[in-house]
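PROTEIN DATA CARD
Card holder: Probable electron transfer flavoprotein subunit alpha
Chain length: 332
Origin: Scheffersomyces stipitis
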Amino acid sequence: MLRSCISKRLFSTTRARLDTLAFVEAAGGKISPASLSAITAAQQIGKPITALIVGEQGEAVSSEVGKIAGVSKALFAKGEQYNHYLAEELSPLIKDILSSSSDYTHFVTAASAVGKSVLPRLGALVDAQPISDIIKVESENTFVRPIYAGNALATVKSNDKLILVSVRASAFAPAELSGDGSVSVEEFATVFKSDNRTEFVSEDLVTSERPELGSASKVVAGGRGLKNKETFEQLIEPLASKLSAAVGASRAAVDSGFCDNSLQVGQTGKIVAPELYIAVGISGAIQHLAGMKDSKTIVAINKDPEAPIFNVADIGLVADLNEALPELTQKL
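Structure generated from the sequence above:
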């Protein structure tokens, strides 16, 4: 009996460390808020977190990674092929890292454009079923995710040895940068050749002094009811400026050319959950509601009293937006 107890204790002390590998995106020399939210989800899984940073952006934020609460180790993959987060380059890299050690049980990424592109490719490479867009961590292998455009929630349990997860940023608060930065950053030497036939050509970034839409605490969004681009700019922009809010739009407004598609809120756009969401001239199609209905306070302005947006609004104003918005902006 004594021998049995001793052998169990020896086994527990020599057991391999089981970690979560979390991919950290960066932009403009800063860690993306979505990645910080993904780290929060990784913390709730309850295992030590290894952060993965890549390319020039990763090098720029390497000192900041050590300050993220819950991160115990960081890996840095150097190489210009990772500068623009091409999924065709990132997926084999992450597979190589996960295969290089049996310590990893989870891979976590934000459900951003990069994460949505990387995760299915990685799932195919490691033969695991990804769980996408989670909004809650029930346990280390059980998660909650929305289905049917957010009209139902599915609780999903994974039996895979390696669990792949993407995280809806609006469902988790960003992890705090409260550490002392003492976490060491190790360079991961890649030994594979990706044979990638995709190459980065160029990018055209829309720059703005406004808050970033995905992480803004206040959002003013316009829809088809604004009729044209000129009205959109004349009515939405001044109100957003007064509130120091980000500007959003429905898909109908984006498809009609009222604004850039980077401002689209909805099932096929950005998922937001600000403290205040003002929907102007937006009817409330189910696809749009899926992207904003978790907002803390929803204000709807629409001349149609039967518009579906009023079913989720905390405050509704049935009025002509051409009259109501200038007055609201002036009084603010």
